[in-house]
Amino acid sequence: MNILTLLIFTPILFGIIVAVLPSAWRDSFKYITLLATLVQLGLSVWIYCNFKTGADFGGVNHEGQFQFVQKLPWIDLDMGAMGKMQIEYFVGIDGLSIALLVMTSFVLVIAALASWEIKSNLKGFFVLFLILDMAVIGVFCSLDFFLFYIFYELMLLPLYFLIGMWGGARREYAAIKFFLYTLFGSVFMLLVMIGLYLSVKDPATGNHTYNMVQMMNPANYQAGSVFSALSHQTIFGFPARAVGFIVLFIAFAIKVPVVPLHTWLPDAHVEAPTPVSIILAGILLKVGGYGIIRVCLSIFPDIASADAYWLGLLGVISILYGAMNALAQKDLKRMIAYSSVSHMGFVLLGIASQTTEGISGAVMQMVSHGFLSTMLFFLAGVVYNRVHDRGIGHFRGLASIMPQYTAFVMIAFFASLGLPGFSAFIGEAFSLMGAFKSHSVNGLLPYWMAVCGSLGILLGAAYFLWTLQRMFFGQVHLKGGSVWETALTDLNFREKITLVPLALMVLALGLMPSLVFDKVNDSVLALVQFFQHTI
Amino acid sequence: MEEFLHAIDTLTIHFTLAAVLLPLLAFVINFSLPGRLHKLAGWVSTIAIIISCIISASVFSKVWNGHMVHQQMYWFTIGDTKIYAGILLNNLSVLMLLLVNLIALPVHIYSTAYMKDDEGYRRYFAYLSFFCFSMLVLVVADNLVLFYIFWELVGFSSYLLIGFWFTRDKAILANKKAFIMNRIGDTGLLTAIIILFSQFHTFDILQLFADKGLISQSVIQGGTWIAPLGHLPAAWQYIAFSGIFLAVAAKSAQFPLHTWLPDAMEGPTSISALIHAATMVAAGVFLLGRVYQLFNDVELTILAIIGCFTAFMAATIALTQNDLKRILAYSTISQLGFMIMAMGIGAYASSLFHLATHAFFKCLLFLVAGIVIHQMAHIKKDNGLDIDPQNILNMGGLRKKMPLTFIAALIGGLALIGLPLTSGYLSKDGILIQAFEWAEGRSGLYKIIPILALLTTWLTAFYVARLIAKVFFGELKVLNDHPGIQIHIGDGGWRYKLPLMLLALCCLFPLFSANPLLYEHAWLFNGFTPASSHEHANIYHTLVPIGVNILSVLVICGTYAMYVKRKGNIFPQSGFLYRLSAGEWYFDRIYNIVIIKPILFLSSAVFWIDRTIIDGFINALADIGVKIAKLCAWVDHHVIDGFLNLLVAIVEAIGNFARRFQGGKVQYYLFSMLVVILLLFILKTVF
Q1: Can you tell me whether residue A60 is helix, strand or coil?
Q2: Residues from chain B contacting residue A440 (CB–CB below 8 Å)
Q3: Are A405 and A496 in contact (CB under 8 A)?
Q4: Domain spans of chain A?
Q5: 3-state SS track over A318-380
Q6: Tens digit of pLDDT for each residue in A438-483?
Q7: Which string of DSSP letters, residue by residue, matches B498-520?
Q8: B535: helix, coil or strand?
Q9: Is the distance from CB of A201 to CB of A220 less than 8 angstroms?
Q10: Would the CB atoms of B232 and A260 count as touching at under 8 Å?
């Protein structure tokens, strides 16, 4: 049994168990789910430890360099004159996926622990949770575009119900908005995927293929096909490859989210229950960033270089725009949601630079943000569960009544605003460094972008500290008076064992960034080399 | 032999490592100390700092004026860039290492008494140790990444300590302000580091800033900044400078980022002494010392102008403040201005010399202030008065009640003014003399700088004299205002007295020079000066010290006469200048109007755009979708379905019509047959 396959489908096994158990046993569902995620975490840690590094394991556009590969024929349809349809079950990982994979498994454990707060319709919740779990892991492992797409779309369905059924007051609106927004992007992605399929032939079998790694090799494109770089086809008068790139980019940019495609995020995050907010912010956004690297940039490197300026610009806009919005928020969860927009802007900026520093920084920032946004949303959930209110102005002086909680909030806030010693600093600093270096290395981004990006770090301090000052310090003053004061108890045991590992992770990654970089470096070098060859 | 030397170096590095890590250990222990043992926290931190201090002294003795020691270890790789972390020991770093420890030690001892009744006792010492750790690593860090990390961490520990009493609104506003102001500087520093890295491909301080390092090999030629490994447009050299300047201005409280420091006085006074007077705020000057090679003439001149202006401005503000700690805070800003100015005019050694002397006397003055405030707070508490214990207008005559504190204050004050026999005289006169020498070769406008600096020293003499007069001489005002109150105050226990005595000794000349009058003979000064370069005895070397000190003494006498002998106040307590000074040059108000308000407005405008325009667009799309769907439904219902319904209706009507012919009544059938036949006949006849 291939370990990746095991990793992907473990949750669904547990999901089936949850589904067939009688509802009278509903109290056990959360433990079963937690067990599933723990098994998964164990598997991914094993994968992490056995992940080989070195120049021979770069991956990216070399199929032989991927690890833990499983490749099975899946759909082989003889289509007569059109040849054979070749869809494979093809999973494998390289340095770009491994870090995100481990982070995802970790965050899912936390999300499972956060699910303790769900009180209604437990069977439905946990079955959907486990389906979602399978889908996100699948996305990070798939190397066949068709398989990738299926997992990608499969994420939407459970999320729609998880937000729409267990969410807050405006859950229906948020769920539909989220669903349609993302579907909008992926429908067009489907068209590009088919276009790519029709353009690329597997040199071994001579069939068209969905193999993403083969899509990265210009030699595999059929002469005269729509996405062949040499044939200069056009769609609606625009170069076909540019259209393909932009369509894919928009699909992933919605997930990241990149301004101005971000407005689903504040609503979805705010209305979603805590575990779903955690999965959304911690994992879903990374799927966007991962997709941009793995799909957009790797399949269309020529266009990515030509449009790098615009990608970088969107990154800078996201950083500043998200930060400005966060500054204006009166709702704690919404503030965190906008801070995510700002932090993910660094990822886009780093990716756009196409330098080793920039891309490594972007991956680091994704991993770091995965842990930090999880922590932030979990913390926002703590206070919401106790008094069902999240207004920043409705609380004051929480430090006096919830000292441990405040300590964790301070860790999360300071780590998020990029205090050195925590992971976000490494991610942000190196993304910016790559962006600045880009001009002299490959001439893609102008110098000023990095300088503007660094203003985001400044604004980050402003909105986090302002929130800290308003909610946590000063004399105790709560909107709900003494009722709230008794309700606002300090962290319980479950909350502490959830938060401590997160805090330790962000600290460990900040002090020993090599935990991520050692695994990522070879792939990043391979990727950058790949870009240089195509330019 | 080679190996032996290497082994010695390694030993030195290990010593340094121990000195640096001991406070971290204390932090960890204090952090995990069980609640009932919290009284131990003070001793944990203090013992750590004592050992650290001893070790630093031995490291200092090995490295000072000896050879530089540098060792590093691999940290991580990003892409193909390897990042190292290491320790760099040269004169500058070992001086700072020892200085920080020497200042931290009395502050620790003092704190065990000063904070003993505070419920956050353990937290206080945990933070304090964390600060010491950050500061110590900062001074020995060998590369810019490490430097930046600890640069921010000292800012962070300062944030924690300013807001130590987190239920006080003023304290938490102050710490937020301090952190954000420092963040501006951090952003600048980060930008500068990024620029340097992309230009020189290394973070290593030694490779960059050594005598024949990469920086000194780079030149600006024809609008391009050319380095051995790359080139950038020349503007980026200036931007790198601006970034570093912002960092220095933020940390060392220089114009225009100085406004956080007076507010930072909301923290415990012992913290003000250590962090906001002696060590952390000097980190900006230290940074300048580290990257000094980078600056060209224009940039140095900018430093000189800003430093000089800050020194003057802060001194004028200190003249009229009534809050004891605020006066000292502005005095710190002013003295830091002197150091920055000294760097700008090329008086590198004097600048660092002043940094060291200032650390001692300003720390001393703050500790004195702490005792005075503590005693005033006692009076307030014992008698239930509603007074501000920090306001000097409530004090007076304290020299009889607390003689040791008075003497310490006097020594610290004289050193701050820079009168002979004190350490301050040695360092400050050096700066003034070199300022005149610097202006000598330049056009008239540059002469303003030494003159302004001179003026500032007299202003300093005035506000220090005023402070001491108001606090220690005359009558206790609060007693005059509230006759009959109980007063039990004194110098306090040995944990107050010992630090004062130690620091007071360090404020006198013998620690720094055998010759109390000539700064050139100070060992510390010589440690930073190439041996050949200081033999230009000229007229300034005699004129400046004499002029400065005679006038200073006159100013002090005048002040004494004015405030103690009540010869009448010759200065108006109104008018534009007074208000400018008392209003602290209105910086806070201007920043509030020009920066904070617009940013908040912008952020709500951006949020409005987000909700109304972007989301509005999305919702409009959704609306349009729904409208089109409704239209389709209408068309479906009325047009397509309508057509079908019409067909049905027609068929139904025909059917209904035809149905009538089949009623089942024979008469009806006969009648219809008759009608049909008749009709046929009629038609036949007609046509």
Answers
A1: coil
A2: 198, 230, 232
A3: no
A4: 307-535
A5: HHHHHHHHHHCCCEHHHHHHHHHHHHHHHHHHHHHHCCHHHHHHHHHHHHHHHHHHHHHHHHH
A6: 888 888 889 899 889 999 899 989 999 999 999 999 888 888 888 8
A7: HHHHHHHHHTBGGGT-SSSS-GG
A8: coil
A9: yes
A10: no
Instruction: Return the percentage of chain A with pLDDT > 70, whole number.
Output: 99
β-pairing, B219-221 vs B69-78, is unpaired
Ordered strands of the A84-93 beta sheet: A67-78, A84-93, A208-209
A420 to chain B: which residues are within 8 Å by CB?
A: 148-150, 152-153
At a CB cut-off of 8 Å and minimum separation 6, what does B206 contact? B70, B88, B142, B213
Whether A401 contacts A476, CB under 8 Å: yes
Query: What does pTM read for this prediction?
Result: 0.91
Q: Could you tell me if B247 and B151 are in contact, meaning their C-beta atoms sit under 8 angstroms apart?
A: yes
Q: Which of B78, B166, B195 sits opposite A399 (nearest CB)?
A: B166
Distance in angstroms (rounded) separating the CA atoms of residues B521 and B512: 9
Alpha helices in B33-82 (DSSP H): 41-63
A-B CB pairs within 8 A amount to 139
Interface touch B149/A528, C-beta < 8 Å: no
Residue at B548: amino acid letter: V
Could you report the average pLDDT of every consecutive run of 10 residues in chain B (687 residues)? 80 90 92 81 90 92 86 85 88 91 92 87 91 92 91 92 89 91 92 90 86 82 82 88 93 90 90 88 91 89 92 91 91 93 89 92 92 88 84 84 90 90 87 87 84 91 90 84 79 86 88 80 79 61 82 86 74 79 86 90 90 88 91 90 90 87 79 90 88
What is the interface pTM, i.e. ipTM, of the complex?
A: 0.91
Residue A345 pLDDT > 70 = yes
What is the C-alpha to C-alpha distance for residues B289 and B355, in angstroms, rounded to an integer?
A: 11
Is A521 in contact with B197 (Cβ distance < 8 A)?
no
pLDDT at B537: 63
CA torsion B522-B524-B530-B535 (nearest 10°) is: -20
Tell me if B234 sits within 8 A of B223, measured CB to CB: yes
Q: How far is B611 from chain A (nearest CA, A)?
A: 8
Q: For chain A, how are helix, strand and coil distributed in percent, rounded to 5?
A: 75, 5, 20
Q: Does B645 touch chain A (CB under 8 A)?
A: no
Tokens of B262: 């007076």
CB within 8 Å: B79 and A525? yes
Of A181, A355, A513, the CB nearest to B76: A513
Q: Which residues of A touch B607 (CB under 8 A)?
A: 324-325, 328-329
**Cβ separation of B79 and A357 shorter than 8 Å?**
yes
B586-593: list long-range contacts, CB under 8 Å, 24+ apart.
B587/B256, B587/B258, B587/B259, B588/B259, B591/B259
Looking at chain B, which residue has its C-alpha nearest residue A260?
Answer: B614
- Average pLDDT for chain A: 89
Q: Which residue, B327, B312, B323, is CA-closest to B465? A: B327
Q: Report pLDDT for B399.
A: 84
Find the closest chain B residue to A361 by CA distance: B78
Hey, which residues 467-496 in chain B have their CB within 8 Å of chain A? none
The 10s digit of each residue's pLDDT in A132-173 is: 999 999 999 999 999 999 999 999 899 999 998 998 888 888
Q: Residues near B485 by Cβ (< 8 Å), separated by ≥ 6?
A: B379, B382, B383, B385, B478, B479
B24 at A interface, C-beta within 8 A:
no
Instruction: Flag if B79 and A360 touch (Cβ within 8 Å).
Output: yes
Question: Are residues A437 and B615, on separate chains, in Cβ contact within 8 Å?
Answer: no
The helix or strand, by DSSP H or E, that contains position A14, with its residue range, turns out to be helix A3-20
The residue of chain B nearest to residue A517, with distances taken between CA atoms, is: B78
The rounded distance, in Å, linking the Cα atoms of B623 and A8 is 39
Closest CA to A83 of A205, A195, A190, A204: A205
- A408-439 tens-digit pLDDT: 999 999 999 989 989 999 999 999 999 998 88
